């Protein structure tokens, strides 16, 4: 029993040791089989109890001991197996690691047997792994990461190409192969691939056969690209292009050739061997190619039924020939047009007054016009021989037609710098004969120089005269009494005289520097603060269109009055003229007030006369009526003295009534209320009626009336009563001014458009200074005659004649008489319609 217990103790110690050694799992695993069957445990316990007399507790202890012993044995066995298997795996793993290391060394030796660099990026990682010979692309001193800055060791264009290729490899997995040259001139190959989820770039140097092969491949690729480019160009070219074999058969044709030969397609043109050129042209082309290996000619070719001009170029090749035909119709037309234009320009230049001479790049005369020959008096044969520039200058100097120069050679060399210049130069030559010549040298685009010669003698003389005239005008303006200022179209004061500054009370330097009209306005506002006036002046000065003179009257704050006139000048400028009219304005104002007073007095006189005339007419009518009543025999007999007195009363009242009627008529005419009663006027009867009214005066004053009327004078349209009144007043006036035993003549004649009445007396005549007043109211002068009157007769005559649309004139010679002539229009109705 003690032996069993000791064995169990040793088993437990072994398990404890296994657990301490980290093999607790194995121990637990070893114990598990001993506890898998409770039936076995029961049987063992029963047997122990039956044969050895152990109780149940002792049997349980023994069973547990045996189980622990079994577990220890199994655990020891498993441990030994695990250690043996681990030893074998370690040896196998060590062997595989050794093999992999050897294989890696072999692959690295094989990979880096030549200079190259590997750059790899793991998926999702931006940090590259770099291995290999980095000195291939950079110096040893530089950091290896600098290799990724391609611009540091590659030229700009290859660096950009490399950047794009690496980005496409990392983002899209696109492989690439590039042949590049570093900034140091080394040829490298850059290859990019996506392998195992990594982006790998290999960079290696190309040398020896590999480099030659790469260059050959590049040249082949370039040649292939050029060939394809040339094929595409030939196919798309608008000019016919073809190639032929040695036998003359068509081997190649582009689309333009097919269209020109009216083929259906390229294959159709090749199969039918369509020809672009005519037979004689082909024969000439073949002969030229056999002789010179190339051919060039400008030929007429019929294309699409139209004959056009083509420049044909052909080249002999080893396997045949090739050619191209370029449409030169437009070029030929342009060449002809240019030739015509040049000829037209030559004819135009021949008509110029300026002398023109053109020298080519060799400095020889190629063109001159007639004005040039006449200007310098050169021989035409000499000019036609195309002399050089120096020869022409030498001849002109020999003929003393050039300005005198102390160093003629240096002067000529300076002039000839125009052949190397790029801009024109202008000179003025003062010739010994007194002429001034303007010379312009202009470099030609194709080489050479064009000389332009103008005789500016008169221009310079005019300029001197103009300068002298300008100074005279300046002095004149400065001494004018008016204030004058000239403003440019930009509104700036370009010229002014001292009276301008004095009139506006401006400082002496206020108008210096060409101030703007707004600045001038600001300076003048203290005397004239009228916004409307200044705006008008600004608009006139700065206006571009509708420029006209504007007259303004300015009343300034100091009480002065100015007349302002804006005068547009031909060159777009504007002249402002100011005149002080203060004194004139004051006199005019006084005269105007006096005139208004006189007009008012005259109107009062007219109104008074008019009123009095109306007031006198009624009592006159009564007196005349009673006078006639008293003179009637039915009222009773009168004594001789009473009859004489009554006759005086009748004559006086009749004269007073006539005067009153005349005044009323004049007042009516003056008021515009007179109406004519138009009708046919018998001229003879009108003269008789007027003469009958003055018969008593003719008898009293022993005046003879002479009537001179054209036969068949007829009639005219007018107011007969007023015509008779006009003639009566004329006759009464003539009788009043004529001396005793004189003759008064009245005449009438017809013209194309009027009837003319004339009354002539033998009176004293009218002085010249009084002729304009004879038609005024109450103007009566006897001039030493017996005439006494109110002075209304001629006023009434003029008013009635003018109402008829006629006119009155007075011709008088002092001491020999006066003639008054009245013109009446024949057709008064037509006159009234024309007036309306």
Outline type = elongated
Rg = 69 Å
Q: Bin the strand percentage.
A: 15-25%
Percent helix, as a range, is 40-55%
Strand elements, count: 27
Mean pLDDT across every amino acid position: 77
Task: Sketch the major β-sheet.
Answer: 5 strands, antiparallel
What structural class is derived from the secondary structure elements? Answer: alpha+beta
What separation lies between the terminal Cα atoms?
176 Å
- Runs in which pLDDT lies below 50 for 5 or more consecutive residues are 1-41
Query: Helical stretch count?
Result: 25
Q: What's the arrangement of strands in the largest beta sheet?
A: 2-1-5-4-3
InterPro entries: HATPase_C_sf, HATPase_dom, His_kinase_dom, HisK_dim/P_dom, HisK_dim/P_sf, PAS, PAS-like_dom_sf, Sig_transdc_His_kin-like_C
Pfam families: HATPase_c (PF02518), HisKA (PF00512), PAS_7 (PF12860)
EC number: 2.7.13.3
Catalytic activity: ATP + protein L-histidine = ADP + protein N-phospho-L-histidine
Q: What do you see in this structure?
A:
The protein is of the alpha+beta class. About 50% of the residues lie in helices and about 20% in strands. The chain has a five-stranded antiparallel beta sheet with strand order 2-1-5-4-3, with helices on one face. Strand 6 (about 240-245) and strand 7 form a beta hairpin. Helix 19 runs antiparallel to helix 20.
